[in-house]
Design goal:
two-stranded antiparallel sheet, alpha+beta, eight-stranded mixed beta sheet
């Protein structure tokens, strides 16, 4: 009796192992596709389609040797939830809300310089088909919603190659933003400010993402409330953040951190007025930014000496 049970368990184990190996080949193979709901899904440009891997897939530049993901994420990952690597930025995707948790960029003068080979007008907003169909957002979710498809990794930060700017138009890199007075104005000014930092610093590391902050209602209690749009219930964040670390030629590190409410903002309000302590963003987002840098190693935070 015991030997029969052991044999049965061994058979089950063999079946389980075989299924696992087949699943690994199907989901993680470099050139493999997966068919779901009658559609063929490619595993590029992000992580394996149905994988549960927590780290980003390394991107190796042609010719060689540099691991671009390691370069972008030099100072640490804010979290390791559904991390996806593209050619020139890395993000963590929030499958429930259909927007990123965070998007990380490494920017230099070269990344933002005018490049005649790059044409933003050729770019189209498109779903990332490496995301499981259950968790994708689509252009129709935004249509008629009154919200812009707001870039987290700004297109203007990725001018080294056409494919780099193309990839910033994946909907995994978008979140619903108020258009007039925010995405096209105040938020755009913040993006330009970050680009201007490359004139002063050799390297700029920028982390961007959404927040869902509580608000006190008439009953005296605080609630987190946010709108959702489209048939896929894409979340509309109440606020957005940017946390930036600038690396000077002498190795000195300077941090800036911002939070902007997702609403029409006065044009005359300077970008600096949206500065907040980075710890407040970390607590609200449940993330740790630049955790490989001890705060004591920063020269300044929001312009003030540490």
């Amino acid at each position: 009796m015991i030997s029969k049970r052991l044999l049965h368990l061994a058979q089950l184990s063999a079946v389980g192992l075989t299924g696992y190996l087949i699943g690994q080949k199907k989901c993680f193979g470099k050139d493999e596709n997966v068919v779901s709901h009658g559609k063929t899904l490619t595993s590029l440009p992000g992580l394996p389609i149905f994988g549960t891997v927590s780290a980003a897939t390394p991107y190796v530049e042609s010719g060689g040797a540099k691991d671009r993901v390691s370069e972008i994420m030099k100072y640490g990952f804010p979290s390791l939830d559904n991390v996806r690597s593209y050619d020139d930025f890395v993000l963590s995707y929030d499958r429930r809300n259909r927007v990123p948790h965070w998007v990380f960029e490494h920017i230099t003068k070269d990344h933002i310089s005018k490049n005649d080979a790059v044409d933003r007008s050729k770019c189209d907003f498109k779903p990332d088909e490496s995301i499981h169909p259950f968790f994708r957002s689509h252009n129709m979710d935004y249509k008629g919603s009154g919200f812009d498809r707001g870039h987290m990794a700004a297109a203007g930060n990725h001018r080294l190659a056409q494919r780099h700017v193309d990839q910033t138009f994946y909907l995994t890199n978008m979140a619903p933003q108020v258009g007039q007075g925010f995405n096209r104005d105040s938020w755009n000014r913040l993006e330009k400010h970050v680009r201007k930092l490359t004139k002063v610093y050799n390297n700029v590391y920028c982390c961007t993402g959404p927040l869902y902050l509580p608000r006190k209602e008439v009953d005296g209690k605080s609630y987190v409330k946010y709108q959702v749009i489209g048939t896929n219930s894409v979340a509309v964040p109440t606020h957005f953040y940017k946390v930036v670390v600038c690396e000077a030629g002498d190795g000195a590190l300077h941090m800036e951190s911002y939070v902007m409410p997702n609403q029409r903002l006065p044009d005359e309000t300077p970008v600096s007025s949206y500065m907040v302590p980075p710890e407040t963003i970390e607590k609200a987002a449940g993330l740790l930014f630049f955790d490989k840098i001890h705060r004591s190693k920063l020269t300044t935070i929001n312009g003030k000496k540490v």
